[in-house]
Each structure stands twice: as C-alpha cells, then as structure tokens.
Amino acid sequence: MPEQFADKYVFIEVNTADTDYAARYGEFLKDSGIDRILIKSIPYRTDSDTELNKIRALLYCYILENNINASVDPTDEEEDLKNKTVLVKYADSSGTRAQLEKFLKEKNIDLDLVEFFAVE
Description:
Low-confidence stretches: none
Number of strands: 5
Shape: globular
Largest sheet: 3 strands, mixed
Oligomer: single chain
Order of helices and strands: EHEHEHEHE
C-alpha cells in the first residue's frame, strides 16, 4: 500500500468479489457505525503473482495515489480464467479513461487485459 496513506485509511483484504459476502460486510460496517470512507478494501490478492493480479495492484495504487474517481474490481480467480481482463469502473469522463490508459501504456501493460466501464 502507498505509505502516504498509512495514517489515513485502514487497508483490509476481504473477498468482496463474492457479492453475498460483500453485502454482509457492508452491513457489518453500517451496523458497527464504522465510517466506510476510512476503510479501503484491497481489490487484489497480496499472495498472488498472476499477471491480472499484478495489474490490479498497480492500478489500485495509482488510482489511490492520484485521487482518481475510479475503482478496480476485486480479484476473482474463476472470472479471471474466463474473462482474462481486469475490470476498471470510472466516472464517466473521457479524461479519466485517457489518464488510466496513458498510465498503463507507460507501464507496458497490454490494454486488451483491462476492460473499462463508465459509470454515472
């Protein structure tokens, strides 16, 4: 995790790729009165060195460090085997997508490995 955020957020690794688990986790935070803004769920596996997982980690840190209105969908190894892409959701702005694509190109990441989805 980016060190400049060590005092700002609590980083946790949870299986938010499982939507049922993610819903229960969200309810737990709400019921416990925990401010979700302070919690950052790591969308990649810290113990995996697959290509897609490395891309997720790289994008997640870049998005966080640059305060970009985007998110990286969590790791789901079964989906990775089927889809072979990392899903990035971003605020519907061509500038945001262009910035992320430029970063990936600078890092020599094949853009075919990343799927962008604009959200409102």
